[in-house]
Amino acid sequence: MAVAMGVKSVTVLSRSAAKRKEAEALGAQFLLTSDAAALRREASSFDLIISTAAATYDVNPFFDLLVVDGHYCLVGLPPNGLHVNAFKIVTNRRSLVGSLIGSMKDLQDTLIFCNAHNLQCDVVVLEASKVNVALADLAEGKNGTKRFVIDLKSLLPETKVEEDDRIDPNDWEVHKDGKVIPASADISSRGLKRKAA
Fold this sequence. Notes:
By secondary structure, the chain is an alpha/beta fold. The protein is built from six helices and nine strands, in the order βαβαβαβαβαβαβββ.
């Protein structure tokens, strides 16, 4: 999508070397973020980093990758927030910005753009009953660059979600600011732990 918008070079940043092959198949370069030497080589070389990570991580090393006036954009929300070293931002006028979801018009414009450029997503379509399998696979990184999509036609009142031995609700923690919908699904109301800030 970025290339269709005129970006000359796209790089996938990942802590997992397993994503290299898929990134390169999509025509992107690859940077292994767990490789400190590779991060040093790429210092001050990115205009924009879009972070889709919805996990707890140290954001500060990524600011070193940005050029003067570079932007780090959060679209994934780390569950425990971020600890930002202010000097990483003010040095070289770097920006930390974020975005949730766009308006219906933004979504429509995006779909029109993707259609005009024949851009498609790699997805795995699942029946609603397989949601636990998808969550466990996602936690284990088995989805690669693909996204799981639940077929809502399979979500019927009689749908029973299959159990998966890799998921233990007793290990779940709800963020202190989290809201569980419906309230009856809130594990903290059943005496389970609620995560501190």
